Amino acid sequence: MTDNEPAVISLRDESIRLGQLLKLASLVEDGVEAKSVIEDGHVLVNGEVETRRGRQVRPGDTVDVAGQRIVVAADSDAAE
CA-based angle 32:42:46, to the nearest 5? Predict the structure, then answer.
């Protein structure tokens, strides 16, 4: 993956909290760092600044932080 290609994170569930997603994608070390980055307005969800750590992120959403993009996808193995 190059710096210009987004990382794809697949979810087993319908959604994930923004802070948890940042940890899962290894963009932050822990919840304290996630809280700080989000509350300081450094995270975009679908192109808009998001300051709520508990924001539910769903498949199809994009998250941008620190010049990196995450595309949230549904885990195909979890489909019913």
Answer: 115
Q: Is it the case that residue 77 has pLDDT exceeding 60?
A: no
User: Rounded to whole angstroms, how far apart are CA atoms 64 and 80?
Assistant: 30
Tokens 């822990």 -> residue: 30
What pLDDT was estimated at residue 37?
A: 97
User: Strand pairing of 43-45 and 48-49?
Assistant: antiparallel
- For range 8-23, the mean pLDDT: 94
Measured from the Cβ of residue 77, the count of other Cβ atoms closer than 10 Å reads 7
With beta carbons less than 8 A apart as the criterion, state whether 50 and 44 touch. Answer: yes
Beta bridge partners of 7: 70
Q: What is the mean pLDDT of residues 31-46?
A: 96
Q: How distant is the alpha carbon of residue 72 from its chain centre?
A: 7
State the amino acid at position 10 in one-letter form.
S
